[in-house]
């Protein structure tokens, strides 16, 4: 359907387009029942035509049902009009953290970055204890209220920690999420855990303080490979005003191997609460061994080889059968 300002969708009046992503159009709207401002999210047409993407849309609606926390953009409603589904969310008028990423000429105060990092960690504690993994923690998915407190948004790639990974043994595919913020286990096709979101937390904090992500490359595939091979630069090399304890907490969250990271978001909060007494010298932050695995996972690559070998074998059997048939004539 055509949507413009003033269009009414059930009891929601659309006020204007907030943005269009790869999967949805997002509108600011007014709830005509009480006059409150909300966000209405519609899937793009190609999403509904693709069974896999359509299932992700339904998954997002199901996962966000009942998630109520001050640090999360809560789902208020969902519905369908003219065969088109929509989701209604809280409206956060302060924009997202992307606009607050520091630059050499306008750096973000360390205290503000730590405060936001604490709020985000509290949201992750709630999510993880609710059995939900976000899997795409990045500045664009962290919104701000009018009082500049954070709310984690966009559960399009979220999953539940109880959900077993699906194994279709298909060709390798690009992992879900954003290349610069993916954990190494997401890059290599291993199951996500709480520590995957903790890795994303570390990347966001690193970027807020330095103005750049730690792993960059000309294209997404190279950026994902960088997570597996490269070591992040020291934060204090760019921002010497960042306390060593703050740097240590962030770099520990970003360790390449999951077992070297914080075990859970509560552990991050515990260290943020004792920054004044935290000894960075007790943190093992030396270079880690690279991860030698293909993007998408060893299993996908192995199955690709098996498919090729099976195809060659099938062609050989067919050729042999044709040869025997000709010889017998």
Report the radius of gyration as a whole number of Å. Answer: 23 Å
| Fraction of residues in H or I helices | 25-40%
Strand arrangement within the widest β-sheet reads 1-2-3-4-6-5
Poorly predicted segments: 165-173, 298-315
Largest sheet: 6 strands, antiparallel
What best-fitting shape do the alpha-carbon axes yield?
Answer: globular
What do we call the CATH topology of the largest domain? Transferase(Phosphotransferase), domain 1
Q: What is the assigned CATH homologous superfamily of the largest domain?
A: Transferase(Phosphotransferase) domain 1
Approximate strand percentage = 15-25%
CATH architectural category of the largest domain:
Orthogonal Bundle
Classify the secondary structure makeup into a structural class. Answer: alpha+beta
Would you mind describing this structure in some detail?
The protein is α+β, with helices and mostly antiparallel strands. The chain has two domains: 8-90, Phosphorylase Kinase, domain 1 (2-Layer Sandwich); 97-282, Transferase(Phosphotransferase), domain 1 (Orthogonal Bundle). The chain is built from ten helices and ten strands. The protein has helices at 45-49, 51-64, 110-129, 184-187, 194-210, 220-229, 235-238, 244-253, 265-272, 298-328, and strands at 8-9, 12-20, 24-31, 37-43, 75-81, 84-90, 132-133, 142-144, 150-152, 159-160. The strands form three sheets. A six-stranded antiparallel beta sheet has the order 1-2-3-4-6-5. Strands 7-10 form a two-stranded antiparallel ribbon. A two-stranded antiparallel ribbon has the order 8-9. A hairpin with a 5-residue loop joins strand 3 and strand 4 (37-43). Helix 3 (110-129) packs antiparallel against helix 9 (265-272) and helix 5 packs across helix 8. It is globular, with a radius of gyration of 23 Å. The termini are far apart.
């Amino acid at each position: 359907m055509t949507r413009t300002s003033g269009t009414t969708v059930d009891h929601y009046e659309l006020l204007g387009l907030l943005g269009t992503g790869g999967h949805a159009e997002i509108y600011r709207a007014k709830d005509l029942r009480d006059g409150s401002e909300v966000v209405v999210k519609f899937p793009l047409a190609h999403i509904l035509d693709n069974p896999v993407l359509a299932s992700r849309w339904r998954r997002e609606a199901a996962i966000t049902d009942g998630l109520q926390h001050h640090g999360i953009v809560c789902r208020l409603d969902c519905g369908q009009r003219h065969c088109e589904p929509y989701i209604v969310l809280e409206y956060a008028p302060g924009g997202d953290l992307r606009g607050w990423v520091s630059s050499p000429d306008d750096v973000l105060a360390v205290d503000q970055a730590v405060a936001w990092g604490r709020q985000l960690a509290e949201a992750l504690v709630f999510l993880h204890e609710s059995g939900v993994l976000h899997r795409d923690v990045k500045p664009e998915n962290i919104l701000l209220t009018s009082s500049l407190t954070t709310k984690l948004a966009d559960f399009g790639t979220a999953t539940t920690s109880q959900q077993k990974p699906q194994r279709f043994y298909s060709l390798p595919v690009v992992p879900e999420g954003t290349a610069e913020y993916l954990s190494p286990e997401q890059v290599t096709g291993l199951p996500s855990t709480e520590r995957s979101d903790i890795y994303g937390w570390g990347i966001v904090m690193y970027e807020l303080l330095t103005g750049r992500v730690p792993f960059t490359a000309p294209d997404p595939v190279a950026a994902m490979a960088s997570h597996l091979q490269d070591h992040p630069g020291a934060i204090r090399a760019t921002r010497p005003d960042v306390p060593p304890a703050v740097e240590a907490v962030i770099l520990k969250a970003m360790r390449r191997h999951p077992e070297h990271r914080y075990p859970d978001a509560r552990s991050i909060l515990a260290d943020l609460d004792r920054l004044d007494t935290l000894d960075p010298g007790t943190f093992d932050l030396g270079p880690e061994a690279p991860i030698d695995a293909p993007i998408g996972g060893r299993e996908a690559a192995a199955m690709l080889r098996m498919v090729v070998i099976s195809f060659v074998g099938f062609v050989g059997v067919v050729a042999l059968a044709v040869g025997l048939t000709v010889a017998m004539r």
